Amino acid sequence: SGKRDCLLIATTDQAERFDPTIYRRFVEKGKIINISDYWKNHKNLREVVRLELLRNDIRVVETLSRSQVADSRHISVVDLDQAVEKVYTIFDERTLKVIPSYVRKLIHSLIEINNDFRVDYLDDALLVRKAFELVAQNSYGDLYKKVVGRMDRKVKWEEYVGNVKDLFSEMTNNCLFYHVSEEKGVVLNGPPGSGKTFLVRTWLSENKDVHDIATSASALQDPVNPIDGAVDNLEKVYDIAKMIAPTVVFFDEGDALAPRRSNTGGSPSDKLTNKFLNLIDGEIPLHKVFTILTTNRIDILDPALIRSKRLKVLEISGLLRKEDIHDIISISLKDVPLAEGMTVAKIVETAQSLCNTPADFAAFVEKARSLRSTEYEVLQRMRTLEREPDQIKTNFIKFNYKTLLGILEAANAPQHLRVEVRANPANFMENYTEVIKLVESIASEAEYPLMASHLNSARSEISRSPTKKGKVQLDEFLEAELSQEPQVGFIIGVGANDVTGVLLPIATSLMYGLGTEKVLVTGAVSTTASGAAELDMAVQMTQQSAQEALTMVKNYIQGLMPKVSSARVLGEFLEKYTLHHQLLSASYNVGGPSAGYALALNTLSALLHIPVYNDFGITGAPWTKGVKKGEVGGSVIIGGHKKKTEKVLMYLRRMYMPLKNYMDLEQEFLETYWLQGKDILGVTHFGDLVPEVVCLDDVYEHKLLSLIGMRIQYKLSKYRGETPSDSLKDDILKNKEQLKILLEKEIKARLGALRRYLINPSRDPHLSLEEIFKHKPPRMMEAVMPVFHFMRNFKEKSIRIRKED
Q1: Can you give the pTM of this predicted structure?
Q2: Which CATH number does the domain 146-315 belong to among 3.40.50.300, 3.40.50.1010, 3.30.470.20, 3.30.479.30?
Q3: I need a labelling partner for 364 at 20 to 30 A (CA). Which of 287, 322, 487, 655 fits?
Q4: What is the DSSP string of 291-307?
Q5: Domain 482-695 has CATH 1.20.120.140
Q6: pLDDT digits (tens, 9 = 90+) for 768-786
Q7: At 77, is the secondary structure helix, strand, or coil?
């Protein structure tokens, strides 16, 4: 009949997810009603408030009589209108959507708290906040319990060591207390253990009026609705945050919450990222809600999240100055007594090679403290067992054997006793009385101080953990393999992966008769496995960098000796030689053009047999030319320079990088290393770099060490706002110039020796490079050399003419 007797009603809070074709049908032949607009109407909301008051036995009347004023169970129409206007204001201040359920629960909570209702209750900010806490609990009971008030606040602000906390506090205060709308939140980026979460905890501990919400992407997941559940819960979390504001919303491992969106936009995680971006910087702004994300993988965060006017990034590197480490250990020790001769400095020395971050140092001290306290408890228990049967003593020794050995170490027991007990636990029983006498002077815990044995035990236990074992082994390898002496063709390059810097030792040798290739790179292994395109590209770029390094070295030497063709001299010499670069990396996942400077230095070192110092690391991609004629090897900006620096300066004292990268480093970051006697230097071109990294003789080394020390002193004075003396600056420039002159003189001499060797008709083909550069031609040879040159050139010209004929 064509008649329709069915009415279709659809509800949604995400209209944009409707299929466009179906949605268009509703627009054309139906009606779209935005319910949220309905509650913007004063009369409609007035009815919601009136009904809630009535449900709580509070009636609305036109005019209040005297008796009605007294019993507080009535409200006038005028007061009702005022209450509705104030409700609008309250929701607007919190940037909450006006939803009937929220409004009803707010009114009900105010009545529940005060047992009545008056309009002026809505002017009391503390009362309204308390009421909203009840609203949030009633609206999102389980979620509220899971996320609100979960942060540990039992630490003091003073316990966080580092100036970064002042910048963090300024950001948080601006958002929560000073109404600075641009401060929406911050991403705390740094390696594990650097103190990101600890920083948040210390701030919250001193700001008890601020609520905290702590959660993560995994905690937001809903097993019933795995795709959209996290998105819905995220919106609920921010509704809770707005209700109980001022609020800090803390997301651990924030890179899982807002990962970089896929190019096609079809990934399920894109929905969560989109929702988060919309909440942070959408149509409805946040007010008194500060968002904090922690991550050590900022590279996989969606770039839109840290765009201007959204979340700022604060680097929590965990790098510590000596005084910072001292303060962390002093705070961690608290009231623990120290043995005679034991100082904080000695504890720092024991921990330093094992610990890098604030969490590492705090954990080290906590471990040593716990060993001490456990030993004292066992010691007390051991005394009480003195008259117990042997079986009880035996069981006690069996289950506390390790701790008892620690007590013997701490009590400085005779060596023979320690050896016997270690050899067989049963020997402890035989020496039970002697051990009791050994510790009888310890009457209280204060008389059992922290000793060197506790530190050594703590170090031993921590170093055996899976997370530390590799580092300890690497430390031992570096000490054994990388820190012996300057060598020809041995240098420390450095790369970076997604998480950290990676040391990349490079060994370069000059080999004869390997083939037609002049440059050979090994250790950089390509692969045909799926997803290995990026690795394959890095390998190819490293091989190209090695070839470019040879070209740049030729150009550098050519600039020093313009009258001699360095390309031809080196070309003739390398006719049957191959430069072999070996990248000493077990897993080649770093490299590429940033190894260029390291490869160039090794190339120069191998060709001219000049040792390279072993106290520095270097990264950078040089040009084969420069911006000026005399500045061959100009530096090109590279990535990951900060991570590379942190890794190198863990073991070495100098780090070189392109000047543009150096200028990007914060002064506080640089000062941390200056105070340790370490330095970071920006490279402008190859000729500026070489004099500082090669080793010639003792005089040369003395001048270089003097330069390093003076430069650090000069930088520290400038950083502290002091005015360095003119003589210090002059001495630095003088030393640099002297080193340059000495090196260039040596390079010219060595290239001259190589040239004389090549044109010598009676040369020994098996002479080593070292001997070639030591060899000085006799005076007779110097006298006849011009004649020899003339004869050889005449011969070559005659051959060329005959070929042309």
Answers
A1: 0.70
A2: 3.40.50.300
A3: 655
A4: EEEEES-GGGB-GGGGS
A5: no
A6: 888 888 755 554 445 555 5
A7: helix
